[in-house]
Write a structure and sequence with these properties.
11 strands; 7-stranded mixed sheet; 30% helix; alpha/beta; 8 helices
């Protein structure tokens, strides 16, 4: 069932909850290219430091991320984390949770970058440390999110992570400068690769753009 939809001037995100199977899906909307504010967020290329407290460490090399993505994520971060705790009935009292929930985080384009940030924070949180949640991340056409150290920390903490990339899509190749790196694991789709998309359990269909917004067989 649809649990909650959050929306502000920066982005939209929806949360679905399956109470019976203890599953939660958090989905971030992708870039709407007809809306200038999304393009402005995408173009804020200067990296910003990610607070070590969010990801549980004191790193010698600074963990940096795209400042536009971080700004958009922070606009809903507190509310999303609060809703997730409420949805899984998590109480921070030191008592081992009765149930373990599986959280799937997903998004396309800008939404894929935000899904990456949330997946890392959730996997670093007390919810994960206490066994209240496990996290999987699937995104589509995501740009690079952070620097090499960010990718290293992410790959260490988020074990079930998949980036679906259309072979003609230019967005996953940016930003090209300032040390930005991709996180693991890529799945590249070429013409005729619909079966691969089915293996990861997702069919993405859109007619807005043949390269960046369409993940379907040619």
């Amino acid at each position: 069932m649809l649990y909650r939809v959050l929306s502000n001037r920066k982005l939209q995100v929806a949360i679905w909850r399956d109470s019976e199977r203890k599953r939660l899906v958090v989905a971030f909307r992708g870039t709407e290219q007809v809306r200038w504010k999304d393009l402005r967020t995408d173009l804020m290329l200067v990296p910003a430091g990610l607070n070590p407290e969010r990801i549980g460490g004191d790193f010698r090399q600074e963990v940096q991320v795209h400042s536009g993505f971080l700004s958009a994520y922070d606009s809903v971060r507190t509310r999303i984390l609060s809703l997730i705790k409420l949805a899984v009935a998590y109480i921070d009292d030191g008592v081992k949770p009765l149930n373990k929930w599986h959280i799937y985080v997903t998004g396309h384009s800008l939404g894929g970058a935000l899904a990456t940030l949330l997946a890392l924070e959730l996997s670093s949180s007390q919810l994960a440390k206490e066994g209240a949640v496990s996290v999987s991340m699937y995104n589509f056409g995501s740009p690079r999110v952070g620097n090499k150290k960010f990718a290293e920390v992410y790959n260490e903490k988020v074990k079930d992570s998949w980036r679906v990339v259309n072979h003609r899509d230019i967005i996953p190749t940016v930003p090209r400068l300032m040390g930005y790196c991709h996180v693991a694991q890529p799945i590249y789709l070429a013409p005729g690769d619909l079966k691969i998309a089915m293996v990861v359990g997702i069919s993405w269909i859109s007619s807005f753009s043949p390269s960046h917004l369409s993940y379907k067989e040619d």
